[in-house]
Design a protein that fits this description.
Layout: E1 7-13, E2 18-24, H1 45-53, E3 65-67, E4 72-76, H2 80-93, E5 96-102, E6 107-116, E7 119-129, H3 133-151, E8 160-167, E9 170-177, E10 183-187, E11 194-195, E12 198-199, H4 200-214, E13 217-224, H5 228-247
Parallel strand pairs: 4-5, 10-13
Antiparallel strand pairs: 1-2, 2-5, 3-4, 6-7, 8-9, 9-13, 11-12
């Protein structure tokens, strides 16, 4: 008898963001997104029919889309480096993952100019700037929610996982416990304010948000590295290795199969 599929489909809708996630912890074909009015349905009849059965990548979805015989990954959050990190996490954890987001990433400036002594004097009447915070935070919260739903009853699991990943001169590590006790300690030692359009502080906060929604204890660090892109990417790859180990299931006949891996008998 085959193992039950571990999949989840989640929508997170707030005043600032609209996020949809489809996740399979074991790869393979993804279930379709939940019906929504926040994205236009495909106009092509074949694409519309396909979208009812599974994930159809958004047109122009970019580099973070990769469909193979064993994995489906397509990420479009509006923040390129966030897409890149989630792609790395999904690929190396063995997930299939689709994420699409609409967030308040825009900035609007209204400038009025008046003449004064033959000079143009700029006067700011209104300044509205919205950053990457809400989109990143809500994406990780939605992903964490999908993760814990897909995981289901925390039985037959390895539970603990550690991953180490190098990227050129950088070396990062991650340790995870599927504990149902949310906690996160993230120390990646970034030197830059941003990597692409993603604030480095939001990498830390995003991972904390994931741990909160996923119900996991998470420790991630970077041992060394000169390049912040490499530090971050190595960290997400290390997390992927840790997640893949922790989520692996003990099969019938193995010690721990069917058990909750805890001396308390509950997670």
């Amino acid at each position: 008898m085959g193992l039950a599929a571990r999949t989840a489909v989640v929508s997170r809708v707030t005043n600032e963001t609209k996020i949809q996630v489809s996740l399979s912890l074991d790869g393979g074909v993804l279930p379709p997104y939940e019906p929504t009015t926040h994205w236009e349905a495909p106009t092509d009849p074949q694409e519309a029919e396909a979208a009812k059965k599974g994930i159809v990548p958004e047109k122009g979805s970019g580099h973070a889309t990769q469909f193979t015989p064993t994995q489906q990954v397509t990420i479009t959050t509006g923040i390129g480096f966030l897409d890149h990190m989630l792609h790395a996490l999904a690929k190396h954890s063995g997930w299939s993952l689709a994420v699409r987001a609409k967030g308040d990433l825009f900035s609007t400036y209204y400038i009025a100019k008046t003449k004064k002594k033959k000079k143009q004097v700029p006067i700011t009447n209104l300044f509205t700037a919205v950053d990457d915070h809400h989109t990143t935070e809500d994406t990780f919260l939605a992903l964490g929610t999908a993760f814990t739903q897909a995981l289901g009853a925390r039985q037959s699991l390895t539970r603990f996982g550690r991953g180490d990943a190098p990227l050129d001169e950088a070396l990062s590590w991650a340790v995870i416990d599927l504990s149902s006790r949310p906690y996160a300690v993230i120390n990646l030692g970034f030197k830059r304010e941003k990597i692409g359009d993603l604030s480095t502080e939001m990498i830390t906060h995003g991972l904390e948000s994931f741990a909160q929604a996923a119900g996991v204890t998470l420790h991630i660090g970077c041992t060394y590295g000169d390049n912040d892109h490499h530090r971050a990417e190595a960290a997400f790859k290390a997390l992927a290795v840790a997640v893949r180990t922790a989520c692996s299931r003990r099969l019938a006949g193995e010690v721990g199969a069917g058990d909750v891996v805890s001396t308390k008998g509950v997670l």
